[in-house]
Amino acid sequence: MATVVIKIGGSTLEALEEEFYEGVVKxxxxxxxxxxxxxxxxxxxxxxxxxx
Length: 52
Description:
Blueprint: E1 3-7, H1 10-15, H2 18-29, E2 33-37, H3 41-51
Parallel strand pairs: 1-2
């Protein structure tokens, strides 16, 4: 089981294909925790790099 964080912007979210969502559902059904976040951009990336 893993925690998967997907960070995407609004325009990217609108352009995602059905296969993306199917993959997310599959991973979640296998027990992975899925978190999709929007916004924060560079600030979120910097925080992630400091955390890991």
